[in-house]
Amino acid sequence: MAADHKRHVIIVGGGASGVLLACHLLREQADDLRVTLIEKRPSVGRGMAYSTAQPGHLLNVRATNMSAFADDPLHFCRWLAENHEGSGGEEPGPLTFAQRRVYGRYIESLIEPLLWTEDRPGPLELVYGQALTFTASETEARVTVDDGREITGDVGVLATGHEELPRSNPACYVSPWETPGDAGVARDEAILIRGTGLTMVDYVLSLRANGHRGPIYGMSRRGLLPQAHRPVSPLTISRDDVPFGETLVTLWRWLRRLAKEVMAKGGDWRSAVDGIRPYAWEIWSRLPFDSKQRFLRHGRAWWEVHRHRMAPEVAREIKAALASGQLQVVAAKTLSILPTQTNAIVTYRRRAASTAETLEVARIAECTGVYTDPLESTNPVLRSLIGAGLARPDPLGIGIDIAADCAIIDRSGTPSARLFAVGPLTRAAFFEIMAVPDIRVQCAELANELRTRLGSATSPKPQFRRLA
After folding, report:
1. What pLDDT does 370 receive?
2. Distances (CA, A) of 363 to 56, 70, 195
3. Looking at residue 3, what is its pLDDT?
4. How far is the C-alpha of 260 from the C-alpha of 144, rounded, in Å?
5. Which has the closest alpha carbon to 435: 341, 259, 307?
6. pLDDT below 50 — which residues of the chain?
């Protein structure tokens, strides 16, 4: 795309977060704004979550809550109906848990009308390649790509999403994001999956879809499995009743009491959990730091299995795997893993036990979560930012430090005027920023903020309500 007078936003990361931000930036059809989207994968909009080819991998949220635009909640539902895309052969509707690969196509379709081509000079340019460095001066942001290109703009946004953990030992470790057949996993092999959350659930589905016959062990310190969705409505909770700023213990007791009150009236605890979603960002932002640390150590696993649930169809498949004995969930701490020439010997200690046990498996899949310490990141862009002092890890070590308006905070504690971040990288500030219903709100608000900063003619006044 030729340089011109237009204001220019560079987005590094073309997964769901990056595409949603691009769409919100360009939604107003401002003539003075253009966007460059840089993505290392061969297609945009899919990222790690929606790149799966497995039909059994479903969204964990109903279609009615998965629109790219919060002010148009049926946008995705209409797309499903128009494209005849459903789940499990069923007619798609608002309550459908759509296939994740289908949702990836939906996200990808959002930018098609915006793309720049020789025949149609749209406001959005796609650059396929690995971004290597991300820097900023007082007047511009700059990104270098692995093909030698250097791209400059008025501001840059980091939207690289979740990171896949590096394999500890390529001989016995397999990626849960890779199809078992492609990874050479034999159908009779014993498999250990470290972690028992939604990623484990996905990998069990992948193994069974590949005809796996061998035993599958899911191991985590608490042995908790995600709960299943039920058709319930969120409880209406008054903001005045939420214990903002209180300790984790107080907050936990309040939520448990709320859930018990709902159940005593014949309701479902899911209504109480879903009812606090509008306040989740503010609850987290006002939670004392030591309570945040305690939550990450002791409460996160319990919260996530109740908050991030399985689609009913997925829950039935996991129940069948458990009932058959093929899937065994073990509440234990892994003490050591000793690879051999053909297998791996895993030493572990069950929860509340004093003696260790061993387990021999052929393959190990790491599904222990996405809370990667930025200092251990393999992402060259993130490493360049931290190395140059333009970004710093947050005090919790689960993301980078950002301001309320998503500006990246540098080593000295100063928010950047040129560099911003959206999506899972901002989890330390907003925590509940893993799913599209939350990311779309963040992207809409940042788009408003950037249009205001860049002086776009269509800029509405930004309303940052998360950290109010």
Report:
1. 61
2. 22, 42, 14
3. 47
4. 54
5. 307
6. 1-3, 88-89, 459-468
